[in-house]
Amino acid sequence: MKLATFIKSSVLLILYLSLALSAAAQIQPRMKIAEGYLRTQIENMPEKEKRPLIEYLDRGRAAADEGMRLLFAGKYDDFYKSTSKEFQKNYSPEQFKQIIEIFQKQAGEIFYYEYRNQSIELPPGVELSADLSKATSNVYYFIKVSKVFSDGIFIDIETTVEDGRHKISFLTTTNYGENVPKWLLKQ
Length: 187
Description:
CATH topology: Nuclear Transport Factor 2, Chain: A
Number of helices: 5
Radius of gyration: 16 Å
CATH class: Alpha Beta
Structural class: alpha+beta
Largest sheet: 6 strands, antiparallel
Strand content: 25-35%
């Protein structure tokens, strides 16, 4: 049932697409060890088990979709306001604006995006159950940008529940190049 146990080292938006950015040395990476469960795996579970998990994923998807819409529309201040307290503790509005500026300088504008998949991630040893207090929802979008030409670029918008609502807690970008995992291919 597990997608994978993996170490995900991610740096907010500026380590964009595995490009070596000179400014990246100023941002600290975040190590994350997690067990992931794809939405398609959860959808194949018995109804009683999957219902609370699907509801959690749906709420996470709605928050991530709104965040992606704001990024696409260039509404970065509104995007920042939709992030979690933890995100805002780690990145001031000014730092976030600098990250966006570096992103645009290196990659250009996002001119296309498309939902591709979703997962629930849990810390190691935490069972997949209706108690999702330690879970994150990860929504994966294929993107196209104006300065980098690749069919393997993805943004992962991670959400967690804060004050009863899903809030954006982290962003990760990845350029898989020609090695896009099957679970991210267009279905």
